[in-house]
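Lab notebook, bench 4. The sequencing result for the construct came back, and we need a structural model before the next group meeting so we can plan mutations. Quick request posted to the team channel:

Model the 3D structure of this chain.
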Amino acid sequence: MPKTLVILAIFLIFPGIHLGAESFRTEVDGTIEVTPERTSEGPISIGINSAVIIDLGAEARFLRGIELEITAPQMWLQYQGSLVMLMYNSLSPQAASGIADMAGNRIAFDPLPSRLRIVYQIPIRPQHGLRTTTTVSVPSAIAQPATFPIMFRLMQVAKGLPDEFERIRFNLVARPILSDEGAVRLIPRFPPQLRNRPFTVLINDNVISNISEQIMLKEGENHLVVLSDDYRNISHRFVVERARVTDLIIELQDPTPIIIFEAPQNAQIFLNNSQIRNRDSVTVEPGAHEVRFQVGDYTVTRNLNVQRGKTYRVALAVDLNIHEED
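Done. Here's the predicted structure in token form:
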């Protein structure tokens, strides 16, 4: 058996062999940056015994992997078993172009399939959920974001092939594989007279220990609760978008009780025997209060027990009842 074929056979039998950092010489045909917002701007052409460097942009926390789609020319189908792909991380040097001497840790090795469309999905987090199928290959190793950039490399393993083989070019496109998460940035706003008093934030019943840090959440509807002895309690729902940072403004409010009155303009309103001139809102102390509405000779009196942090709407209702009789 020729020496080159013996080497290929060893790779095929032990594809998971990892020898630590490897040194090699290759031609770097280009660099791709993958971000949650976009696919690579266009395909990069990669040749035999060439490589492409793939880097991550900001917000890699929203990614669970990177998809590489390789499109092959028709003539590639004639040369099955003549190429292997290799992937490396922890590259040194981290940036290169043209022919370069590189070193890196090999994280994947695979004979290049004899197909016109070849897809690899590279996991970048432990709980990635990616699976190998009949059309997609998922390397077993995880390329942690801290080990980027990584390199995708093609290497010839067969000899004696015609010149047309060495002229084969493949097109490579890199796409983000998004997680089902987004992030929330909490922005508290304090009333002028009550600044920086303590309060507790819960999201989906979990206490948020540090509201200054962005919080990763599943996409979709979530529930926010704010509890405090110095501000009004808050409870509302909000929506998190996939791979997006949502600014969530928390309007902290003075807990002094408020009463809002609604009545016809000709009605007189009394609170604890004092006439109310401003009907929009009146702040009161917690406890028992008496409300009286007076329209001409008609008077309605009610007692109201006011609690801290609550808003009360007190309305004088006038009904018109119509009865039909035979």
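The chain has three domains: 3-178, 181-251, 258-315.
Will bring this to the meeting.
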